[in-house]
TrEMBL record:
<feature type="repeat" description="RCC1">
    <location>
        <begin position="237"/>
        <end position="290"/>
    </location>
</feature>
<dbReference type="GO" id="GO:0005085">
    <property type="term" value="F:guanyl-nucleotide exchange factor activity"/>
</dbReference>
<feature type="repeat" description="RCC1">
    <location>
        <begin position="423"/>
        <end position="482"/>
    </location>
</feature>
<feature type="region of interest" description="Disordered">
    <location>
        <begin position="1"/>
        <end position="40"/>
    </location>
</feature>
<feature type="compositionally biased region" description="Basic and acidic residues">
    <location>
        <begin position="143"/>
        <end position="156"/>
    </location>
</feature>
<feature type="repeat" description="RCC1">
    <location>
        <begin position="62"/>
        <end position="117"/>
    </location>
</feature>
<dbReference type="GO" id="GO:0005737">
    <property type="term" value="C:cytoplasm"/>
</dbReference>
<dbReference type="InterPro" id="IPR000408">
    <property type="entry name" value="Reg_chr_condens"/>
</dbReference>
<feature type="region of interest" description="Disordered">
    <location>
        <begin position="136"/>
        <end position="156"/>
    </location>
</feature>
<keyword id="KW-0677">Repeat</keyword>
<feature type="repeat" description="RCC1">
    <location>
        <begin position="347"/>
        <end position="421"/>
    </location>
</feature>
<feature type="domain" description="RCC1-like">
    <location>
        <begin position="64"/>
        <end position="478"/>
    </location>
</feature>
<feature type="repeat" description="RCC1">
    <location>
        <begin position="118"/>
        <end position="183"/>
    </location>
</feature>
<dbReference type="InterPro" id="IPR009091">
    <property type="entry name" value="RCC1/BLIP-II"/>
</dbReference>
<dbReference type="InterPro" id="IPR058923">
    <property type="entry name" value="RCC1-like_dom"/>
</dbReference>
<dbReference type="InterPro" id="IPR051553">
    <property type="entry name" value="Ran_GTPase-activating"/>
</dbReference>
<feature type="compositionally biased region" description="Basic and acidic residues">
    <location>
        <begin position="1"/>
        <end position="30"/>
    </location>
</feature>
Length: 485
Protein backbone atom coordinates (compact mmCIF):
# COMPACT_ATOMS: atom_id res chain seq x y z
CA UNK A 1 0.00 0.00 0.00
CA UNK A 2 1.27 3.52 -0.71
CA UNK A 3 2.12 5.81 2.19
CA UNK A 4 -0.85 7.76 3.46
CA UNK A 5 -0.83 11.51 3.06
CA UNK A 6 -1.99 13.85 5.75
CA UNK A 7 -5.07 15.99 5.27
CA UNK A 8 -6.59 18.90 7.10
CA UNK A 9 -10.24 18.21 6.25
CA UNK A 10 -12.81 16.76 8.60
CA UNK A 11 -14.12 14.07 6.26
CA UNK A 12 -13.01 10.47 6.68
CA UNK A 13 -10.13 9.23 4.54
CA UNK A 14 -11.25 7.28 1.51
CA UNK A 15 -9.90 5.62 -1.57
CA UNK A 16 -12.10 6.71 -4.42
CA UNK A 17 -14.39 8.96 -6.49
CA UNK A 18 -17.10 8.46 -8.99
CA UNK A 19 -18.79 9.43 -12.10
CA UNK A 20 -21.42 8.05 -14.38
CA UNK A 21 -22.02 9.55 -17.78
CA UNK A 22 -25.37 10.31 -19.32
CA UNK A 23 -26.64 7.69 -21.79
CA UNK A 24 -25.10 8.40 -25.20
CA UNK A 25 -27.38 8.92 -28.16
CA UNK A 26 -26.25 5.74 -29.89
CA UNK A 27 -27.22 3.72 -26.81
CA UNK A 28 -30.74 5.06 -26.41
CA UNK A 29 -34.04 3.55 -27.40
CA UNK A 30 -36.06 5.55 -29.89
CA UNK A 31 -39.38 5.01 -28.14
CA UNK A 32 -40.84 7.41 -25.59
CA UNK A 33 -42.11 5.75 -22.43
CA UNK A 34 -45.18 6.80 -20.48
CA UNK A 35 -45.40 5.80 -16.85
CA UNK A 36 -49.13 5.77 -16.25
CA UNK A 37 -52.02 3.42 -15.54
CA UNK A 38 -54.22 2.43 -18.45
CA UNK A 39 -57.96 1.95 -18.24
CA UNK A 40 -61.05 4.00 -17.47
CA UNK A 41 -60.22 4.30 -13.77
CA UNK A 42 -56.75 5.73 -14.30
CA UNK A 43 -55.88 8.67 -12.08
CA UNK A 44 -57.16 12.04 -13.22
CA UNK A 45 -53.68 13.36 -12.57
CA UNK A 46 -51.74 13.25 -15.84
CA UNK A 47 -48.85 10.82 -15.81
CA UNK A 48 -45.45 12.39 -16.25
CA UNK A 49 -44.00 11.80 -19.71
CA UNK A 50 -40.55 10.30 -20.02
CA UNK A 51 -37.82 12.71 -21.07
CA UNK A 52 -34.90 10.26 -20.82
CA UNK A 53 -34.64 6.93 -22.63
CA UNK A 54 -33.49 3.74 -20.96
CA UNK A 55 -30.16 2.92 -22.62
CA UNK A 56 -29.87 -0.07 -24.91
CA UNK A 57 -27.03 -2.57 -24.87
CA UNK A 58 -24.04 -1.37 -26.85
CA UNK A 59 -22.66 -3.61 -29.60
CA UNK A 60 -19.14 -2.12 -29.56
CA UNK A 61 -16.69 -4.58 -27.98
CA UNK A 62 -14.02 -2.63 -26.11
CA UNK A 63 -10.36 -3.32 -25.41
CA UNK A 64 -9.85 -2.83 -21.66
CA UNK A 65 -6.60 -1.42 -20.20
CA UNK A 66 -5.56 -1.36 -16.54
CA UNK A 67 -2.72 0.38 -14.69
CA UNK A 68 -1.69 1.47 -11.21
CA UNK A 69 -1.50 -0.49 -7.97
CA UNK A 70 -3.21 -3.87 -7.69
CA UNK A 71 -2.29 -4.93 -4.18
CA UNK A 72 -5.96 -5.61 -3.40
CA UNK A 73 -6.80 -7.19 -6.77
CA UNK A 74 -8.22 -4.10 -8.47
CA UNK A 75 -6.18 -4.44 -11.68
CA UNK A 76 -7.84 -7.71 -12.68
CA UNK A 77 -4.74 -9.22 -14.28
CA UNK A 78 -4.66 -12.38 -12.21
CA UNK A 79 -3.05 -13.42 -8.91
CA UNK A 80 0.55 -12.57 -9.81
CA UNK A 81 0.16 -8.96 -10.98
CA UNK A 82 0.21 -6.33 -8.23
CA UNK A 83 1.46 -3.35 -10.23
CA UNK A 84 1.20 -2.09 -13.81
CA UNK A 85 3.23 1.00 -14.72
CA UNK A 86 1.65 1.84 -18.08
CA UNK A 87 -1.70 0.88 -19.64
CA UNK A 88 -1.79 -2.85 -20.34
CA UNK A 89 -4.49 -4.81 -22.16
CA UNK A 90 -6.46 -7.06 -19.82
CA UNK A 91 -5.79 -10.63 -21.04
CA UNK A 92 -8.95 -11.98 -19.43
CA UNK A 93 -11.29 -9.60 -21.30
CA UNK A 94 -10.70 -10.12 -25.04
CA UNK A 95 -12.70 -7.84 -27.34
CA UNK A 96 -14.34 -10.75 -29.14
CA UNK A 97 -17.32 -13.08 -28.82
CA UNK A 98 -15.72 -14.95 -25.91
CA UNK A 99 -16.15 -11.86 -23.72
CA UNK A 100 -16.60 -8.51 -25.49
CA UNK A 101 -16.93 -5.89 -22.74
CA UNK A 102 -19.14 -2.94 -23.77
CA UNK A 103 -19.47 -0.92 -20.54
CA UNK A 104 -17.27 -0.40 -17.46
CA UNK A 105 -17.55 1.29 -14.03
CA UNK A 106 -14.74 1.70 -11.49
CA UNK A 107 -15.34 1.69 -7.75
CA UNK A 108 -12.88 2.42 -4.97
CA UNK A 109 -11.06 -0.91 -5.26
CA UNK A 110 -13.16 -2.95 -7.67
CA UNK A 111 -14.57 -2.81 -11.19
CA UNK A 112 -17.85 -3.99 -12.71
CA UNK A 113 -18.47 -4.40 -16.43
CA UNK A 114 -21.07 -5.56 -18.97
CA UNK A 115 -20.37 -7.79 -21.95
CA UNK A 116 -22.06 -7.64 -25.36
CA UNK A 117 -24.70 -10.15 -24.25
CA UNK A 118 -25.71 -8.08 -21.22
CA UNK A 119 -23.91 -10.25 -18.65
CA UNK A 120 -22.12 -8.73 -15.65
CA UNK A 121 -18.42 -9.19 -14.87
CA UNK A 122 -16.42 -8.09 -11.81
CA UNK A 123 -12.97 -8.07 -10.24
CA UNK A 124 -11.19 -6.46 -7.30
CA UNK A 125 -11.43 -6.46 -3.53
CA UNK A 126 -14.52 -8.34 -2.33
CA UNK A 127 -14.66 -7.50 1.39
CA UNK A 128 -18.20 -6.10 1.06
CA UNK A 129 -19.44 -8.65 -1.52
CA UNK A 130 -19.22 -6.03 -4.28
CA UNK A 131 -18.16 -8.66 -6.83
CA UNK A 132 -21.49 -10.46 -6.54
CA UNK A 133 -19.88 -13.90 -6.56
CA UNK A 134 -18.11 -16.36 -4.29
CA UNK A 135 -14.40 -15.53 -4.05
CA UNK A 136 -13.44 -17.80 -1.15
CA UNK A 137 -10.54 -19.88 -2.36
CA UNK A 138 -10.34 -23.62 -1.84
CA UNK A 139 -7.55 -25.06 0.28
CA UNK A 140 -5.81 -26.16 -2.91
CA UNK A 141 -6.03 -22.65 -4.35
CA UNK A 142 -4.70 -21.12 -1.14
CA UNK A 143 -1.74 -23.48 -1.24
CA UNK A 144 -0.65 -22.20 -4.65
CA UNK A 145 2.22 -19.73 -4.67
CA UNK A 146 0.46 -16.51 -5.69
CA UNK A 147 0.51 -12.94 -4.40
CA UNK A 148 -3.25 -12.41 -4.58
CA UNK A 149 -6.58 -14.17 -4.27
CA UNK A 150 -7.01 -15.67 -7.72
CA UNK A 151 -10.79 -15.40 -7.69
CA UNK A 152 -10.80 -11.70 -6.81
CA UNK A 153 -7.93 -10.71 -9.09
CA UNK A 154 -9.34 -12.45 -12.18
CA UNK A 155 -12.41 -11.05 -14.00
CA UNK A 156 -15.35 -13.45 -13.77
CA UNK A 157 -19.12 -13.42 -14.36
CA UNK A 158 -21.35 -12.18 -11.54
CA UNK A 159 -23.49 -14.98 -10.10
CA UNK A 160 -27.12 -15.49 -9.12
CA UNK A 161 -28.79 -13.59 -11.97
CA UNK A 162 -31.64 -15.11 -14.04
CA UNK A 163 -30.52 -16.00 -17.57
CA UNK A 164 -33.13 -13.75 -19.20
CA UNK A 165 -31.94 -10.52 -17.52
CA UNK A 166 -29.95 -8.20 -19.80
CA UNK A 167 -28.00 -5.32 -18.25
CA UNK A 168 -27.28 -2.02 -19.99
CA UNK A 169 -25.52 0.21 -17.42
CA UNK A 170 -23.36 -0.18 -14.31
CA UNK A 171 -22.10 1.93 -11.40
CA UNK A 172 -19.93 1.38 -8.34
CA UNK A 173 -19.27 2.97 -4.95
CA UNK A 174 -16.59 1.89 -2.48
CA UNK A 175 -18.76 -0.88 -1.09
CA UNK A 176 -21.68 -1.33 -3.49
CA UNK A 177 -22.20 -2.33 -7.11
CA UNK A 178 -25.32 -1.53 -9.13
CA UNK A 179 -26.63 -2.27 -12.60
CA UNK A 180 -29.62 -1.21 -14.71
CA UNK A 181 -31.44 -3.92 -16.65
CA UNK A 182 -33.00 -3.28 -20.05
CA UNK A 183 -36.45 -2.88 -18.45
CA UNK A 184 -35.23 0.04 -16.31
CA UNK A 185 -34.90 -1.80 -13.01
CA UNK A 186 -31.95 -1.23 -10.68
CA UNK A 187 -30.15 -4.26 -9.28
CA UNK A 188 -27.65 -3.81 -6.43
CA UNK A 189 -25.35 -5.81 -4.18
CA UNK A 190 -22.81 -5.06 -1.48
CA UNK A 191 -23.49 -2.57 1.29
CA UNK A 192 -23.17 1.00 2.55
CA UNK A 193 -20.76 1.65 5.42
CA UNK A 194 -20.95 4.44 7.99
CA UNK A 195 -18.21 4.44 10.62
CA UNK A 196 -17.93 0.66 10.36
CA UNK A 197 -21.68 0.05 10.55
CA UNK A 198 -23.05 -1.73 7.47
CA UNK A 199 -26.53 -1.67 5.98
CA UNK A 200 -27.91 -2.52 2.53
CA UNK A 201 -31.55 -1.50 2.97
CA UNK A 202 -34.20 -1.20 5.66
CA UNK A 203 -35.29 -4.63 6.85
CA UNK A 204 -32.63 -6.32 4.75
CA UNK A 205 -29.26 -7.91 5.43
CA UNK A 206 -26.16 -5.96 6.41
CA UNK A 207 -24.54 -7.13 3.17
CA UNK A 208 -26.36 -8.22 0.00
CA UNK A 209 -24.14 -10.89 -1.54
CA UNK A 210 -25.79 -11.30 -4.95
CA UNK A 211 -27.62 -8.86 -7.24
CA UNK A 212 -31.11 -8.02 -6.04
CA UNK A 213 -33.75 -5.79 -7.71
CA UNK A 214 -34.19 -2.56 -5.74
CA UNK A 215 -37.86 -1.91 -4.84
CA UNK A 216 -39.50 1.36 -5.82
CA UNK A 217 -37.31 2.32 -8.78
CA UNK A 218 -38.67 2.00 -12.31
CA UNK A 219 -37.44 3.52 -15.53
CA UNK A 220 -33.85 3.99 -14.38
CA UNK A 221 -31.57 5.38 -17.10
CA UNK A 222 -28.26 6.24 -15.35
CA UNK A 223 -26.47 6.07 -12.01
CA UNK A 224 -23.50 7.61 -10.21
CA UNK A 225 -21.65 6.30 -7.17
CA UNK A 226 -19.83 8.24 -4.45
CA UNK A 227 -17.91 6.72 -1.56
CA UNK A 228 -21.02 5.31 0.10
CA UNK A 229 -23.95 6.85 -1.73
CA UNK A 230 -25.65 6.16 -5.04
CA UNK A 231 -27.60 8.50 -7.33
CA UNK A 232 -30.21 7.05 -9.69
CA UNK A 233 -31.69 9.03 -12.60
CA UNK A 234 -35.03 7.91 -14.02
CA UNK A 235 -36.72 8.42 -17.36
CA UNK A 236 -38.91 11.21 -15.97
CA UNK A 237 -35.90 13.35 -15.15
CA UNK A 238 -36.10 12.74 -11.40
CA UNK A 239 -33.11 11.83 -9.22
CA UNK A 240 -33.20 9.33 -6.36
CA UNK A 241 -30.46 9.12 -3.71
CA UNK A 242 -29.56 6.17 -1.50
CA UNK A 243 -26.89 5.52 1.12
CA UNK A 244 -24.94 7.53 3.67
CA UNK A 245 -25.80 11.22 3.67
CA UNK A 246 -24.36 12.93 6.73
CA UNK A 247 -22.40 15.35 4.52
CA UNK A 248 -25.52 16.39 2.60
CA UNK A 249 -24.71 14.24 -0.45
CA UNK A 250 -28.21 12.74 -0.59
CA UNK A 251 -29.86 16.13 -0.90
CA UNK A 252 -32.30 15.52 1.95
CA UNK A 253 -32.35 15.22 5.72
CA UNK A 254 -31.08 11.89 7.04
CA UNK A 255 -31.24 10.17 10.38
CA UNK A 256 -28.01 9.83 12.33
CA UNK A 257 -29.01 6.19 12.77
CA UNK A 258 -28.06 4.03 9.82
CA UNK A 259 -30.84 1.49 10.23
CA UNK A 260 -34.06 3.39 9.71
CA UNK A 261 -37.35 2.42 8.08
CA UNK A 262 -36.64 4.92 5.30
CA UNK A 263 -33.15 3.63 4.44
CA UNK A 264 -33.49 3.15 0.70
CA UNK A 265 -33.64 5.27 -2.47
CA UNK A 266 -35.53 8.54 -1.93
CA UNK A 267 -36.41 11.20 -4.48
CA UNK A 268 -34.23 14.32 -4.33
CA UNK A 269 -36.53 17.32 -3.98
CA UNK A 270 -35.76 20.43 -6.01
CA UNK A 271 -34.57 18.74 -9.19
CA UNK A 272 -36.49 18.28 -12.42
CA UNK A 273 -35.78 17.84 -16.10
CA UNK A 274 -32.44 16.13 -15.28
CA UNK A 275 -30.47 14.27 -17.97
CA UNK A 276 -27.26 13.21 -16.16
CA UNK A 277 -25.88 12.64 -12.65
CA UNK A 278 -22.37 12.43 -11.18
CA UNK A 279 -20.86 11.97 -7.75
CA UNK A 280 -17.67 12.58 -5.82
CA UNK A 281 -16.78 10.95 -2.53
CA UNK A 282 -19.15 13.10 -0.46
CA UNK A 283 -20.75 15.42 -3.03
CA UNK A 284 -23.24 15.11 -5.87
CA UNK A 285 -24.13 16.71 -9.20
CA UNK A 286 -27.01 16.79 -11.68
CA UNK A 287 -27.24 18.29 -15.18
CA UNK A 288 -30.60 19.28 -16.62
CA UNK A 289 -31.76 19.28 -20.23
CA UNK A 290 -30.88 22.96 -20.46
CA UNK A 291 -27.26 21.98 -19.68
CA UNK A 292 -27.33 23.70 -16.28
CA UNK A 293 -25.39 22.23 -13.36
CA UNK A 294 -26.69 21.59 -9.82
CA UNK A 295 -24.54 20.55 -6.86
CA UNK A 296 -24.92 19.52 -3.23
CA UNK A 297 -23.00 17.79 -0.44
CA UNK A 298 -19.65 18.40 1.23
CA UNK A 299 -18.08 21.66 0.04
CA UNK A 300 -15.14 22.07 2.42
CA UNK A 301 -12.72 22.48 -0.49
CA UNK A 302 -15.18 24.19 -2.83
CA UNK A 303 -15.66 20.94 -4.74
CA UNK A 304 -19.32 21.74 -5.41
CA UNK A 305 -18.28 24.70 -7.63
CA UNK A 306 -20.08 27.13 -5.31
CA UNK A 307 -17.33 29.30 -3.77
CA UNK A 308 -19.47 31.48 -1.51
CA UNK A 309 -20.58 28.34 0.38
CA UNK A 310 -17.10 26.78 0.66
CA UNK A 311 -14.88 26.33 3.70
CA UNK A 312 -13.99 24.01 6.53
CA UNK A 313 -16.95 21.83 7.51
CA UNK A 314 -19.27 23.49 4.97
CA UNK A 315 -22.01 21.40 3.38
CA UNK A 316 -24.73 22.21 0.86
CA UNK A 317 -27.81 20.31 1.98
CA UNK A 318 -30.01 20.66 -1.09
CA UNK A 319 -29.45 20.86 -4.86
CA UNK A 320 -28.19 24.33 -5.72
CA UNK A 321 -27.73 25.84 -9.17
CA UNK A 322 -24.07 26.49 -10.00
CA UNK A 323 -24.24 30.04 -11.31
CA UNK A 324 -20.72 29.98 -12.79
CA UNK A 325 -21.83 27.62 -15.56
CA UNK A 326 -25.22 29.21 -16.35
CA UNK A 327 -23.85 30.59 -19.64
CA UNK A 328 -21.52 27.62 -20.25
CA UNK A 329 -23.44 24.51 -21.41
CA UNK A 330 -22.25 21.54 -19.34
CA UNK A 331 -21.76 18.12 -20.94
CA UNK A 332 -20.36 16.02 -18.10
CA UNK A 333 -19.02 16.15 -14.52
CA UNK A 334 -16.56 13.98 -12.57
CA UNK A 335 -16.01 14.02 -8.82
CA UNK A 336 -13.01 12.88 -6.81
CA UNK A 337 -12.31 12.90 -3.10
CA UNK A 338 -12.36 16.68 -2.68
CA UNK A 339 -12.05 17.91 -6.27
CA UNK A 340 -14.28 18.05 -9.33
CA UNK A 341 -13.95 18.38 -13.10
CA UNK A 342 -16.57 19.92 -15.37
CA UNK A 343 -16.55 19.23 -19.12
CA UNK A 344 -18.37 21.75 -21.30
CA UNK A 345 -20.05 20.94 -24.59
CA UNK A 346 -17.33 23.08 -26.16
CA UNK A 347 -14.74 20.49 -25.09
CA UNK A 348 -13.19 22.73 -22.43
CA UNK A 349 -12.50 21.36 -18.93
CA UNK A 350 -12.76 23.31 -15.68
CA UNK A 351 -11.35 22.12 -12.34
CA UNK A 352 -12.21 23.08 -8.77
CA UNK A 353 -11.43 21.96 -5.23
CA UNK A 354 -8.42 20.55 -3.41
CA UNK A 355 -5.09 20.95 -5.17
CA UNK A 356 -2.53 19.51 -2.74
CA UNK A 357 -1.72 16.66 -5.11
CA UNK A 358 -2.08 18.59 -8.41
CA UNK A 359 -5.40 16.83 -9.08
CA UNK A 360 -6.77 20.02 -10.67
CA UNK A 361 -4.14 20.05 -13.43
CA UNK A 362 -3.46 23.76 -12.97
CA UNK A 363 -0.04 25.45 -12.94
CA UNK A 364 0.46 27.91 -10.10
CA UNK A 365 0.27 30.75 -12.60
CA UNK A 366 -3.36 29.82 -13.29
CA UNK A 367 -4.54 29.89 -9.67
CA UNK A 368 -7.27 32.55 -9.23
CA UNK A 369 -7.07 35.22 -6.55
CA UNK A 370 -9.62 33.30 -4.50
CA UNK A 371 -7.20 30.37 -4.01
CA UNK A 372 -6.98 29.35 -0.34
CA UNK A 373 -3.48 28.67 1.00
CA UNK A 374 -2.27 26.61 3.94
CA UNK A 375 -0.75 28.18 7.05
CA UNK A 376 2.61 28.85 5.43
CA UNK A 377 0.92 31.09 2.89
CA UNK A 378 2.75 29.53 -0.03
CA UNK A 379 1.20 26.07 -0.42
CA UNK A 380 -2.17 26.13 -2.14
CA UNK A 381 -4.85 24.10 -0.37
CA UNK A 382 -7.81 24.53 -2.70
CA UNK A 383 -9.23 26.52 -5.57
CA UNK A 384 -12.89 27.45 -4.85
CA UNK A 385 -13.62 29.01 -8.24
CA UNK A 386 -13.89 26.74 -11.31
CA UNK A 387 -10.78 27.40 -13.40
CA UNK A 388 -10.18 26.36 -17.02
CA UNK A 389 -7.39 23.96 -17.94
CA UNK A 390 -5.35 25.37 -20.81
CA UNK A 391 -1.88 23.81 -20.97
CA UNK A 392 -0.50 20.31 -20.64
CA UNK A 393 2.53 18.15 -21.32
CA UNK A 394 3.34 15.68 -24.08
CA UNK A 395 6.67 13.88 -24.00
CA UNK A 396 9.45 16.41 -23.45
CA UNK A 397 7.19 19.33 -24.30
CA UNK A 398 5.92 20.89 -21.06
CA UNK A 399 3.85 23.66 -22.67
CA UNK A 400 1.26 22.08 -24.96
CA UNK A 401 -2.11 23.63 -25.73
CA UNK A 402 -4.69 21.14 -24.52
CA UNK A 403 -7.02 19.56 -27.07
CA UNK A 404 -10.78 19.61 -26.84
CA UNK A 405 -11.96 16.77 -24.63
CA UNK A 406 -14.94 14.42 -24.90
CA UNK A 407 -14.82 12.50 -21.60
CA UNK A 408 -13.50 13.04 -18.06
CA UNK A 409 -13.02 10.90 -14.95
CA UNK A 410 -11.64 11.35 -11.45
CA UNK A 411 -9.90 9.06 -9.02
CA UNK A 412 -9.62 9.98 -5.37
CA UNK A 413 -6.76 12.39 -6.05
CA UNK A 414 -6.02 12.03 -9.75
CA UNK A 415 -7.82 12.91 -12.95
CA UNK A 416 -8.24 11.65 -16.52
CA UNK A 417 -9.56 13.11 -19.77
CA UNK A 418 -10.00 11.76 -23.30
CA UNK A 419 -9.24 13.86 -26.38
CA UNK A 420 -12.14 14.52 -28.72
CA UNK A 421 -9.86 14.57 -31.76
CA UNK A 422 -7.96 11.29 -31.43
CA UNK A 423 -9.22 9.58 -28.26
CA UNK A 424 -5.85 9.89 -26.53
CA UNK A 425 -5.81 9.72 -22.72
CA UNK A 426 -4.41 12.53 -20.56
CA UNK A 427 -3.82 12.14 -16.81
CA UNK A 428 -2.64 14.28 -13.90
CA UNK A 429 -2.53 14.49 -10.10
CA UNK A 430 -1.39 11.95 -7.51
CA UNK A 431 0.71 9.35 -9.29
CA UNK A 432 2.96 7.60 -6.77
CA UNK A 433 1.58 4.11 -7.53
CA UNK A 434 1.51 4.42 -11.34
CA UNK A 435 -2.20 5.26 -11.57
CA UNK A 436 -1.36 7.99 -14.12
CA UNK A 437 0.04 5.45 -16.56
CA UNK A 438 3.29 7.26 -17.40
CA UNK A 439 5.76 4.85 -15.84
CA UNK A 440 8.59 6.52 -13.97
CA UNK A 441 10.77 9.37 -15.27
CA UNK A 442 14.27 8.54 -16.46
CA UNK A 443 16.72 8.56 -13.57
CA UNK A 444 14.00 8.39 -10.93
CA UNK A 445 13.32 5.49 -8.57
CA UNK A 446 9.55 5.95 -8.49
CA UNK A 447 6.75 7.69 -10.39
CA UNK A 448 5.81 11.26 -9.62
CA UNK A 449 2.71 13.39 -9.34
CA UNK A 450 1.84 15.31 -12.50
CA UNK A 451 1.09 19.02 -12.13
CA UNK A 452 -0.29 19.34 -15.67
CA UNK A 453 -2.40 17.02 -17.84
CA UNK A 454 0.08 14.72 -19.58
CA UNK A 455 -0.70 12.60 -22.60
CA UNK A 456 -0.21 8.85 -22.16
CA UNK A 457 2.09 7.42 -24.80
CA UNK A 458 2.91 3.72 -24.85
CA UNK A 459 2.89 0.84 -27.31
CA UNK A 460 -0.22 -0.88 -25.96
CA UNK A 461 -2.48 2.11 -26.57
CA UNK A 462 -1.18 2.87 -30.06
CA UNK A 463 -3.95 2.39 -32.59
CA UNK A 464 -6.74 2.63 -30.00
CA UNK A 465 -9.30 5.41 -29.63
CA UNK A 466 -10.29 5.59 -25.98
CA UNK A 467 -13.99 6.00 -25.25
CA UNK A 468 -14.08 5.33 -21.49
CA UNK A 469 -11.92 6.29 -18.51
CA UNK A 470 -12.44 5.44 -14.86
CA UNK A 471 -10.45 5.34 -11.64
CA UNK A 472 -10.40 4.30 -8.02
CA UNK A 473 -8.02 5.29 -5.27
CA UNK A 474 -4.88 3.60 -6.60
CA UNK A 475 -5.70 2.45 -10.12
CA UNK A 476 -7.17 3.53 -13.45
CA UNK A 477 -9.09 1.88 -16.27
CA UNK A 478 -9.30 2.81 -19.95
CA UNK A 479 -11.39 1.21 -22.67
CA UNK A 480 -11.31 1.85 -26.38
CA UNK A 481 -11.90 0.84 -29.97
CA UNK A 482 -9.47 0.30 -32.86
CA UNK A 483 -8.68 3.53 -34.69
CA UNK A 484 -10.31 3.88 -38.06
CA UNK A 485 -7.90 3.95 -41.00
Amino acid sequence: MPPKRSRSDDAPQTKRPRLVREPQAAERKSTVLVNGRAGPRASAKRSKLAINDIPTLSEQKLTVFNFGSGTICELGHGPDVTEIKRPRINPFLPADDSCGIVSVAAGGSHVVAIDYQGHLWSWGQNDSAVLGRNTVETEEEKAEDHDLNGRESTPKRVEGIPDNVVFVAVAATDNLSAAISEDGRVWAWGTFIDDGDKCFRAGGPDIQRQPLPVPGIRGAVAMAGGKDHLLILDNKGDVHAWGIGLSGQLGHQVSTRLRTKTFGPLKVVGLKNIRAVAAGEYHSFAIDHNDRLYAWGLNNFGQCCIPDMAGEGKTITKPTLVSFFEDKPVKMVAGGNHHSLVLLKSGEVYAVGETNFHQLGLPKSSFPKSTVYEGDGTTASYVPDPTKLTIGADGDDEDVTLPKFKYIAAGSDHSLALSEEDGSAWTWGFGEVYQLGHGKPAGEDSPEDEELPRRIRNTATTGVTMVYAGAGGQFSVLAGLPKEN
